[in-house]
Design a protein that fits this description.
With about 190 residues, this protein is an alpha/beta fold. It has five helices and eight strands, in the order H-E-E-E-H-E-H-E-H-E-E-H-E. Helices cover about 30% and strands about 20% of the residues. It has a six-stranded mixed sheet with strand order 5-4-3-6-7-8. The chain has a two-stranded antiparallel sheet with strand order 1-2. It is globular, with a radius of gyration of 16 Å. It starts with a helix and ends in a 5-residue tail after the last strand.
Length: about 190
């Protein structure tokens, strides 16, 4: 029996993500600093997108792929969210394991205006511990993961986690965020 390459990649991402996710037994993400990355910009050949270039700014990182049905719905929602809140919220998209033409088609169709990087080897998604796609990580200004959503997202979840991302509350001497939330949507269970 021959398996489609995309199915094998998706299963591989899930296995590697579960093994390296930095999650506690309860599924709460660790409060570790986000892993820096430098990836080629999807729409602007010759330029790169890096986490370091957004130093001091809270941001949302969304991982997606054109072959993932939940991702295409999420990408459209994220594009709408960004159009409304782009002056208050920074978003970086990372297209994972996609042919460039398919990725470009998705971001054009959904009118994505936030920066999108290409991660053809899933290296960045794996480094973040994404157990599958779609996955969204919310980072505070120090680029610590303060919340994540695994699976499809709602507008309400985005709004709630943006509030956590911007929260100045701290709980310990190294200024970690007071709350770190991890959610899986009901549709992905």
């Amino acid at each position: 029996m021959k398996f489609p390459a995309r199915a094998i990649v998706a299963v591989g991402l899930a296995v590697v993500g579960l093994l390296s996710s930095g999650c506690s037994a309860s599924g709460t993400p660790s409060r570790a600093d986000a892993r820096d990355f430098r990836l080629p910009a999807l729409r602007d050949p010759g330029t790169t997108i890096s986490l370091a270039s957004y130093a001091g700014r809270p941001l949302i990182i969304t991982f997606f792929a054109s072959w993932c049905p939940s991702c295409t719905a999420q990408t459209k929602l994220m594009a709408n969210f960004y159009r409304i809140y782009h002056r208050k919220t920074t978003v970086i998209g990372i297209d994972s394991s996609d042919p460039k033409a398919a990725a470009l088609s998705l971001v054009r169709r959904d009118m994505v205006t936030f920066p999108v990087a290409a991660d053809p080897t899933l290296g960045t998604a794996t480094a973040f511990g994404a157990p599958g796609l779609p996955a969204i990580y919310f980072l505070d200004a120090a680029h610590r993961v303060v919340a994540r959503i695994l699976g499809p997202v709602t507008w309400q979840q985005l709004s709630a986690d943006v509030a956590v991302m911007d929260s100045p509350a701290v709980t310990d001497s190294d200024a970690r965020p007071a709350s770190v939330t991890s959610r899986s949507s009901a549709a992905s269970r």
